[in-house]
């Protein structure tokens, strides 16, 4: 059996609100994606991952799901999704939906019923309703904080509290209640039967909650990060949930799951991609690394080590406790997604930030495994600076206006023309305003420029494709401080994170992320050689 399609796949992440607007309401939609599939095909990606398009009041832009088996009218309808799937498949592009098992919306019929029902009722048993602490139950049941800031509990009119690890509009589901897995299976089959090719599973390290909901040791944590001993996440029980999901997905050959797993410890991370759990899990180390040779190398080494330690399925682990198994997982790589600051800005912004982001593109695309590219990354978009008044991320309100949140990486894509809305929409007031300075960053502009970031992505992806099937391992080559060089099946990737130009390694120059002077690799530049 050959390697599955996704094991070296390039996945393009479409944030549907911001990709392309077909109906002139200032918000992107499914027909907008269908109309711009040329862009994905020209890039040469294997698959797209669509952020949630299911029915939602949009308190967290679709991650608060009121009906997991229907399309929100903002994005279109089921027919529009079918059109997109068919059009993508015609072009050889697979499509992953984004599902949210950990929580629902407060508008989900289950939660509406739970609010109407009494404490202790079966309706409340689908969520985490608890009495409060203190003489009148006026204190939350434990000290858990929401990932978006503030307490993870909200009190309802009869005095009970319900748990929400994210916004109050996102109550956590109780996966010990059989309704949660049964309904999730229905959702998986619903989309797989319609022809989608798999799922990104939101908060895949959530779902299982520890018995008794003990206090967390440390409540002072930054957005989307937490310690591995945080009782809110990464509980042992989560693996049984993943095995049940995998059993369903295995009925659909070729389908893939990729989990959002914010777990730092390599051995614990590896458990999520045992052969009977998720196919893939996001490893966020590379996007957390600074533009620094040591940090980048550590991130790569750790990500590779994490998947190398995968080993056996849970049942095999019990049977063969001491025997070492050889199965390894597939590494995944990303520099951006809809939750983090754009790479150009993270690496310092301006011309330097862009040069570094371009250099990291060559590192990213030379690595073995599955690669994720977030829409706009291929254009070198920086984080947009947005005025307070337009911010929409719940993080902004929940943090008492201290954390601006994730809107700056979610601004609509510039397609063409010289002024906002840059062909994204017919309407000037797009859901988030687009910076007028993006005129030189449009797809149209960059297609005509061989030195553009889009051209760099296209060339790099073409070379990656031509070398499809090249062997998994990477070999580090000795380099001066500040420089990182590795080789993979005859391709040498070198990146200079230092302040001085360095001598290029031997070989034929295939591609560089910036201008090369003779045999010198300038700072903030990477090159591929053969
Ligand atoms: C994940 C998503 C993020 C969302 C959160 C709650 O971290 O990537 O965008 O806000 O889950 O569903």
Automatic annotation (TrEMBL):
Stretches assigned to the Glycosyl hydrolase family 13 catalytic domain: 13-410
Assigned protein family: Belongs to the glycosyl hydrolase 13 family.
SMART domains hit by this protein: Aamy
Superkingdom of the organism of origin: Bacteria
Database matches in InterPro entries: GH, GH13_cat_dom, O16G_dom_2
GO molecular function, one term: hydrolase activity
Name of the protein in its database record: Glycoside hydrolase family 13 protein
Keyword terms: Hydrolase, Isomerase
